[in-house]
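INTERNAL AUDIT FORM
Audit reference: QA-55
Scope: verify that the stored structure record matches its stored sequence.
Auditor: D.O.
Record contents follow.
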Amino acid sequence: MRVAVIIPAAGLGTRMRPEKAGTSRKQFMQLEGDPIFIHTLRKFAATPGVTDIVLALREDDMEWVRASIEKAQLAKPVRLVKGGDSRQQSVENALRTLDKDTEIVAVHDAVRPFIEMQTIAAVIEEAAKCGAAIVGVVPVDTVKQVHRNKIRATIPRDRLILAQTPQVFQFDLLKEAFERASADNFTGTDEASLVERLEKVEVSVVPGSDRNIKITKPTDMDLARLFFREEHGK
């Protein structure tokens, strides 16, 4: 089975403070000596069954990112493609470059470096069987529906999940979802939302982990350093 992983990394990181030139973009922030995206790439490069890794990024970043990947000496090659102005455009650009023999496509946030390899394998296996699967966790806080600052309803948590990545799909299904979205001028919040619109398959949810954090704010870096030390026994 040919499994491709797409990692969009063209975002501008608007929620990070521009403390230094070039470091406000979260995927390029340094975590224990390497940019965050390198730690993320390592997980997929080390995962058995992953055959292709594609990183979508801005053209201006190509040269130094390529140098960073060469320095990291990853277990599998990483192909760079030009990303777009949005996550959806970046993933769509990467999809167009995949080999026709590709069967499964996983999309993962560049800033989720603590995804566990067994979770990657589990969600790929589920998508291969069912067509579509994502990683998700049940929220621990009570969720309220509000209008302005007034509560309108309490939503049962047993019917909710917080979507994480990887989000994994059969290749033809994901291509069709992106084609439909483009034709309808629809922009989704994640890849699953595009696939859901097709109403062809039910998207499965594979249990994720609270450690699979998405690094989006400066305060997330403190937690990331802690998780890194625990993961590497430091």
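Auditor finding: record pair retrieved intact. The chain has one domain: 3-231.
Action required: none
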